[in-house]
Amino acid sequence: MSESFIHVKDLVAAYEENGVNVPVLRGISLDIEKGEYVAVLGHNGSGKSTLAKLLNGILAPDAGELFVAGHDLSNPEIDEDEIYALRREVGMVFQNPDNQLVATIVEEDVAFGPENLGVPSAEIRERVDRALALVGMSDYAAADTNCLSGGQKQRVAIAGLIAMSPSLMICDEATAMLDPIGRREVIETLENLNRDQGVTVVMITHYMNEAARADRVIVLDDGKILADGTPREIFSQPEMLRAAGLDVPQCTALTHALRARGIDLPGEPLSEEECAEIVCRAWRERWTK
Amino acid sequence: MDKIRLEHVSFVYGDKTPFRAEALHDVSLSFGAGRVTGLIGHTGSGKSTMLQLLNGLEKPNEGKIYLDGQDIFAKPREMRQIRFRVGLVMQYPEYQLFEETVRSDIAFGPRNMGLSDEEIAVRVTEAANFTGLPSALLDKSPFDLSGGEKRRAAIAGVMAMRPEVLVLDEPAAGLDPRGRDSILGGVRAYKEATGATVIIVSHSMEDMAMFCDDLVVLSKGKVLFTGTRNEVFSRVRELEEVGLAVPQMARLMMLLREKGLPVPENIYTVSAATEAVAALFE
Amino acid sequence: MKTVSLGQYYPAASPLHRLDARMKVCLSILFIVCTFLAKNICAFAALVAAMLILVALSRIPLRLILRAVRPVLFIMVFTAVVNLFVTKGENLLFSWWKLQIFREGIYNASFMLVRIITLVVGSSLLLTYTTTPIQLTDAIESLLSPLRVFRLPVHEFAMMMTIALRFIPLLSEETAKIMNAQRARGVDFSVGGPVRRVQSLVPILIPLFVSSFRRADELATAMECRCYRGGKGRTKMTIPHLHARDGVALVLLLLFGTGIVLLNRYGYGYTMTR
Q1: Nearest Cβ partner for B146 among A44, A282, A286
Q2: Which CATH superfamily is domain B2-229 in?
Q3: Predicted ipTM beyond 0.85
C-alpha cells in the first residue's frame, strides 16, 4: 500500500456508448499528500469530472492503482461498506447547488450526513453548529434553503460535508454556476478549511483565477496529465494552456508578449498587482541606465 | 438611432403581497440600433428582469418601452410579433429543448411564426451555421448533445426567428473557455450577417470589453451609468466601489498610472496593453 | 426575487405555533371528533366558542382564516340545501309541489353549516396555519413510526415528503422559466381551443420532466455521497420533546370533548337526528 493520501498510478477509465468503448482517462499517475490544496484544470471532456468521481467511489476504474485515504478503490471486489467508509472521509461538492441539498431548512440539511452516520443527537447538534460557523452561515441556521443565493447554498453544502468531518474535499466545478460574488465566497471558504482545519482540497475547475490561488495545479487534456506544478510553473507555459483549451491569464499573456518584444521582465506575475510591480521596476531600470 | 427605448420603467414583483420586491425603479435608457450593448450588475440588480421586459414577457408597472418608436404594449394582440422581433435567449437556455431532433427544435420558433417549410429549412441551416453546429448533429436528439452543443442548439432556436434585436442573458455561463468562445463567436456571426442590435448580460468583464460597443451598469434596480465601453470602463474606482470588477488590463493600466507610468486610458485587451507598455520602453 | 410560499403556514409567535406538531395532529383529530359529536344547539354553541378562542389564540388575521373556508363553500351550501329539504320532521313550515321544509330541516341545515365551518377553521388553525410543512412531515413520521413493526416504509415515506417539500418551490420556479423561454419562441398559451392548449403544454412538460429526472439523479448521487443508506442506523439531530403546555392543551381539549357529550345529554332544544 502507498504512503500518499491519494495515490493514482496508470489509472484508466472508460465508458461504453452504443457498444463502443470510449476512453476518458488514459493512464494518469499522481500523488497528493494530506493538507495539499490542488486545482485540477481542464476543458469539458478532458476527464477531470471522471477523476473526481473515481476518487469518491462513484465510478470504478478499469485499470491501474487508486488508493484514497487508505482505501484500495482499484480492488474490483471492494464491498459497499468500504465505499461508505471512504465517503465518511471524502466529501464531494457538486456543480448544481440546488441538486445536493436534501432538506428545506439549512441546519436540517447540514445534519443529514451525521444523521446517516448514526452520530448521537447531542453531538450532531455540536457538529452542525461548528460546521455552519466554519462556513460563515450560522446566522442562516433556521433559514429556508430556497431563499439563499447560489454561493450561500454551496456553503451550506460544504457545511453538510464538514459535519461528517472529512479529511478530503473534492469540488467538481462547484463554482461554475455561481456569480463572481458567490464564487469568491466558496473559494474563500475552501481556503479557510484547508488552512485552518488541514482539510485536503481537490478543486476541479476551468477558472484560471481559482487555480492561481492553489498550492499546486494539475492540467488534464484528453485523459492525460499535461502538466503538474505550482501555479507559477503552470502559468509560465501559455502555449501548453492554449493547447489544453484553457484561458491564459491575461497578465501572463501580457508579460510573455512583452518578452517576445525584447523587454526583460523577471518572474511570473499571478495578479495585476504583481504584474504592475514587475513592469514598473523594469521601466525604472530602463530609464535610469 | 435608438432601437429600443425605456422611459421611466419600474417593475415590482409580487405587488400588494407581503413579498413585494422592486426590481427596477424609474429606469430610462436606450439601446442603439445595430450596436452591441452590455448589461453589467450584480445578481439581483434587475438585469434579468429588464431583459424580460424588452420582449414583453413581463409588463412594467409603470413606464413605457418603445421598439422603433412604437410602444410594445400598445397592442396586446400583437405581442407575439414583438417577441419574434426581439429574440430572448434566457439563462441556461438548453433547458428549453424538447423536440425529438435538434433540427425540429431549432425550427420551433419559425414554425410558430407561420413560415413556409422551405423558409423554415433555410432558417434552420442558417442558424446552425451561425452557432457552428455541424449538420451531422441536426438529426440527433437534443438530449444526446454535450452541454456546449445543447447551449448552441438553444441559441440557434432563437436566431432562427431572425430577430432584429438579439437579447442574451449570460449566454456563456458555466461553459469552459472553448464553449464560451464558440457561443460568443456565434453571436458575432449573427450580428455581422444580419446587422441586428445585440443586448448581452455577462459577469466576465473581459468578455464585455472584447464584445460590446456600449455598456449599461445597473445597481439595485437603477441605472448607475451608461455610455460607450471606454466611458464606462474608465471609471475603474467607481465600479470597484459598487463591488463590480473591471477588465484585468484596465485595472493593470490604472495601477501603472498610479505608480506614475504614463500609460494611456481606454485599454482593455492584452494586445492593446502590450502596445501601450512596449511604447514605455522605447 | 419571487418567493414561493408553500401551504398556508402563517409565521407568528402564538401559543398555537408553539405547541408540538405531533400534539397538534392529535388535537386536530380530537377537535374534528368533537365537531361530529355535537348534536344540539348548546353543543354547537360551545363549538363556535371554542373556534373563536382558537382564532384569538392563533394571532392570524381573520381575513386569512376566512380564506380557508372558501374552497369548501360549495360543499357547505350543498350539504345545507340537502339537509334543508331531506329532513322530515313534525313541524311543516313550507310546502310546494314535492318540496317540503320542516323546522327540523332548518335546524339540521344550520347545524351542518356550523359543523363544517368549525371543522375547517379549527383543523386549519391547529395544523396548516400554525405548523410548517416540515414540522408536519416530521410529526407524521414520528406518529406513524410504530407501524414499522408491520414493515411499513415509514422512514422512506417521510424522506419522500421532505424531498418533495424542498423541490416543489424549485420546480414551480423552473416551470415559470421554461414557460417564458417558450413564450419567447412564440408559444401563446392563451389562444386556441382545448386541443391546441394541451398541445402547447408539450414544450413545457418535456423539459420539465427531463430536468426533474436530472435533478433526481444528481440528488441521489449527492445523498449517497453523504452516506445515506436508508433509515437503518440513522439518528436524528432534534428529538422533539413534549412540554407542559402540550399536556395542558390535551387536557383542555379532552375536557371540552366531555363537555360536548354532557351538553348533548343535558342541554335543551332540538337534537340532531343524524
Answers
A1: A44
A2: P-loop containing nucleotide triphosphate hydrolases (3.40.50.300)
A3: yes
